[in-house]
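Molecular record:
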Amino acid sequence: MNALSGCVASLTLSTETLQTTIQVLDAAVADYPRLAKVLSSHRHFELVSQSDLQTAQSLLSSTIAPEADRLLKETEKHIHRLELKERKLIADAELLETRIANSLKKSGVPGGSSGQKTAAAAAIPAASGNEDEAMNVEKLKKLKAQRQRLAYAVERLELEKRQKEMQLKKNMSYGA
């Protein structure tokens, strides 16, 4: 039994050593989840390589550039059309003013097409009481109002014409 008691003592010592080792290991491993969380690295921002960035920029540029060029050309065409329309309207207005001035000269109203002369012509009939001149001034006012109405009508008709042309172009482009 003596031999057996030495084995039991050795086994008891080994068990105690294992118990203390387990306690030390538990103390060391107890902090492991916190350490794993602290030491883990999260990628909050995705890093993109320079070549990927240049590829994306060139793709975006090749997509946007043709559309931007098309829009610029379309805008330039529209501006050119508006400039032509402005020139035409100015020429039409000058022509109408010339016609009115000629009709006033033929009818005998002093003045002409300038605003100061017509204002003076309007003041003369009131002061002198000449009915013929007053009628001519009234006729001038009516002609100016008629000219404005006709100018608006022409502008409206031109707009309708452009809209119909655009609709026709759209219909023809869908049909082709």
Q: What stands out?
A: DSSP finds five helices and no strands in the chain. Helices lie at 2-29, 32-39, 50-107, 115-128, 131-175.
